[in-house]
Amino acid sequence: MQRCKVYLQDLNGNTFSKEGKLIGYDPSYDLAILKVDVEGDKLRPALIGTSHDLRVGQSCFAIGNPYGYEHTLTTGVVSGLGREIPSPNGRPIRGAIQTDAAINSGNSGGPLIDSHGHVIGINTATFTKKGTGISSGVNFAIPIDVVLRTVPNLIVYGTSVSNRF
Predict the structure, then answer these.
(1) CATH H-level superfamily of 47-145
(2) Collapsing DSSP states into helix, strand and coil, what is residue 49?
(3) Does this model's pTM top 0.85?
(4) Where in the chain is the domain with CATH 2.40.10.10?
(5) pLDDT tens digits for 31-85?
(6) What is the DSSP string of 54-113?
(7) What SUPFAM superfamilies has UniProt attached to this entry (predicted)?
(8) Which of 106, 24, 34 is nearest to 69 (CA)?
(9) Which of 71, 107, 120, 141 could form a disulfide with 103 if both were Cys (CB 3.0 to 4.6 A apart)?
């Protein structure tokens, strides 16, 4: 089982690290599930929204650690819905949310939230200008409704149902 260091922040603003264990991965959606034991630590779970009623033009925000800069928030709008982008295993990710909120190295895996603070997607990719590695400003997130359908199988089986056969 793969392990990693996970950084967390409690309700008092204290940052600490714990060991995380990879318990599930779906390369078709570029999603991973980490288990972190945090007994006794005061943490607040993210507010989960829905992606089924998103509208092009609505505000959204990407949270992450781009290039190691902690607690970074970028702002943008939902630029498109139902996009198809390549996944790490070469299969297309269908239904992706397109946004102009900056998603750089370190933002992938972080939340895309709406103006009410609800998670509407998981940041996953940015298109880069060919041969330069420079972001084109066209960024993508996995819709939270897809994430919520995928996560239970990742927890139980370590992979999505479609990857088990």
Answers:
(1) Trypsin-like serine proteases (2.40.10.10)
(2) coil
(3) yes
(4) 47-145
(5) 999 999 987 768 888 999 999 999 999 999 999 888 888 889 999 999 999 999 9
(6) --TT-EEEEEE-GGG-SSEEEEEEEEEEEEEEE-TTSSEEEEEEEE-S---TTTTTSEEE
(7) Trypsin-like serine proteases
(8) 106
(9) 107
